[in-house]
Amino acid sequence: MVEAVLIDLFSLPANLQNTTQGLLRNTLESIEKCSSTPAPFVYVMCCQRQGSERNGEQGSLLPALRDFQGLKRRPEVVRALTTAAALYTIKQRLDEKDLSIIKVILPTLRKDLMKVYIDHLFTAIYQFEFEDLQVASGCENLQIAEPQSKEQTLPTQDVALIRSEIQMYLESLPSLKGELTILRSSLIPDDIFLHGFTTRAGGISYIPTLSSCNLFSSSKRRDPQVVVKENLRRLANAAGFNPETFHRVKVDHANAVHIMGKTEPDSYDGIVTNQKGVTIAAPGADCIPVLFADPVRKACGAAHSGWKGTLLGVSMATVNAMVSEYGCNVKDILVVLGPSVGPCCYKLPHESAEEFHRIDPKCVRLFDSASPYIDIRRATRILLESGGILPENIQDDSVTDQNQNITFCTACHPDKFYSHFRDGTNFGTQIGFISIKD
User: Fold this and answer.
1) What is the spatial distance between Cα 63 and Cα 349, in angstroms, rounded to a whole number?
2) Where is the protein situated, by its record's location annotation (predicted)?
3) What pLDDT digit, counting tens, does each position of 203-260 carry?
4) What is the pLDDT of residues 103-150, one digit of tens each?
5) Is residue 289 domain-resident?
């Protein structure tokens, strides 16, 4: 069932006003006639000519729009200087209404072009169907459409131009939720290492649970890779690292560690390097982004430690990789636990809680309940200390000076952090990052 219809008039010349009105009216009549009740939302995408009067242009289409009362609302005209700008604006309208199944009605010659824009600006959550812009002959046109082809038929240089257009548009967008903010620990020496933990402010992601500096994209979320890439670019500019030499762990909720410079595993939750100018990172949206720094051997690491990774010892696995690969002394390694869900909010089933209870009974609150509260930070600290990390070389929520504390509870601070536990499946992600300065 089509939830929304996008009519692409972007490429039609301005001097074909009468033809455009006729095409639009015929198309809208077909939609109104053939759609099941309730009829879908309709968006009309047009080019905003340089120096033209916006209201005048929209007014020229009103005769074709005003009579269609059977639709959920009057078709909405979206004008912009570029296809990227128009399509991104329409994506915002779709996301506001949580719509995912879209029919695109467009000139035949625009189809391959439009598919490239869609591949970059949307994720697999959305389903697109395509229909040629013409007078539809029957109701089947609105219900049966060809599947979106994954083959790229445009010349490489045309695809590159589209990517450049999208990037320029996204770079022009204002930051949301205030200035980009980076939390830093005083434990890690800033004359040797560049590091930090991100918050949710300062990016361009607009969906409420992803707003605004979301740094992860997947097929199950509505933020595409190009938006995450732009958020990362802004972070890199603010922090001072090169986004082209940025490496993030490939989360598997386990304890594998990737040694930079060696063959990269398909998935891993820890990463270490002694290469200068390479920024490594671990995500967190309740799970702990853990950073490691050895100022003596000048090596660093990052790990993603959720409850599974904590029990599997991912943090000590990262420490052990630094020791074995770079000759680090475990007593020289500094460890900082970033923002993560706290024992005030985080619950697990009793059988999982039992494993934390075996590490230390203080890691579990209300142990006799069906879903006890779990302290994955305390468990991580205990496992690190058991592995030889000095207590004074670990920074986590035991730090009481709020000016230095960076291990906030993500679930308790919706204004600062993303939280899977709090926000559900379409959640945003912050990261912890670290690199060795040149």
Assistant:
1) 61
2) Cytoplasm; Endoplasmic reticulum; Nucleus; Peroxisome
3) 999 999 999 999 999 998 999 999 999 999 999 999 999 999 999 999 999 999 999 9
4) 999 989 999 999 999 999 999 999 999 999 864 444 444 443 444 445
5) yes
User: CA torsion angle for 377, 381, 387, 391 (degrees, to 10)?
Assistant: 160
Number of structural domains found in the chain: 2
Write the CA distances from 183 to 200, 228, 431, 432, integer angstroms: 11, 19, 11, 9
**Do the bridges between strand 101-106 and strand 76-80 make them parallel or antiparallel, or are there none, so unpaired?**
unpaired
Preceding amide of 100 cis, omega within 30: no
Strand partners, 77: 44
Contacts of residue 109, Cβ cutoff 8 Å, sequence gap at least 6: 11
If asked whether residues 305 and 374 sit together in one domain, one would say yes
Over the Cα atoms of the chain, what is R_g? 26
C-alpha–C-alpha distance, residues 30 and 138, integer Å: 8
* Same domain assignment for residues 340 and 371: yes
CA-closest candidate to residue 188, choices 376, 431, 436, 438 = 436
**141 belongs to a structural domain:** no
Residues 212 and 164 in one domain: no
Q: At what angle do helices 111-121 and 225-239 cross, to 10 degrees?
A: 50
Rounded CA separation 273/251 (Å): 18
pTM attached to this predicted model: 0.90
Lookup result for tokens 């990227």: 84
- The CATH number that applies at residue 45 is 3.40.50
| Angstrom distance (rounded) from CA 54 to CA 15 | 16
Query: In whole angstroms, what separates CA 154 from the centre of its chain?
Result: 27
How far apart, in whole angstroms, are the C-alpha atoms of residue 81 and residue 59?
18
Which residues share a beta bridge with 103?
A: 5, 129
- 156 vs 158: CA distance, rounded Å: 5
Rounded Cα–Cα distance for residues 5 and 19 (Å) = 20
* Assigned token pair, 365: 């609150």
User: String of b and e for 216-240 (b: at least 16 CB within 10 Å)?
Assistant: bbeeebbbbebbbbbbbbbbbebbe
Q: Which domain holds residue 127?
A: 4-49+63-135+159-172
